[in-house]
Amino acid sequence: MKKILMLHGINHNLFGKRDPRIYGKVTLEEINDRLRTLGKDLGVELEFFQTNHEGEMCEKIHQGFLEEVDGVMINGGAWTHYSYGIRDALEILKVPIVEIHMSNIYKREEFRRKSVFADLCTGQISGFGVDSYLLGLRAIIRAIET
What we know:
- By secondary structure, the chain is of the alpha/beta class.
- It has a single domain (2-145), classed as Dehydroquinase, class II (Rossmann fold, 3-Layer(aba) Sandwich).
- Helix content is 39%, strand content 19%.
- The chain has five helices and five strands.
- β3 (71-75), α4 and β4 (97-101) form a beta-alpha-beta unit.
């Protein structure tokens, strides 16, 4: 069974409470539950990780590399726009990476329109709320299979 690592970044533990106008009312656990259900239907195993600490995120990416996960999905939150440390960790990976955002980062503040991860990723999905995650899971499975 293929294993996919789902990385949730800074402040995502507050989904459902944090700015529902942008992120909706869905919680992180609800997002993970939906992904877990879809993953079972599609025959993949998902591991979930969320942290508010940049070094912990890098360590988890390193662990995914050493454990030879088949793919990585990441919503780095604000780190997407400036964390060269996480970018360098992602660059170590030799598997498909899909970048996920619930909001359309291109319709938001100027600084959010730049992703320092984008050139490392197979693709990027943004603007569809929780469906961004579900679309991302389908996309990464396709990338793994090709």
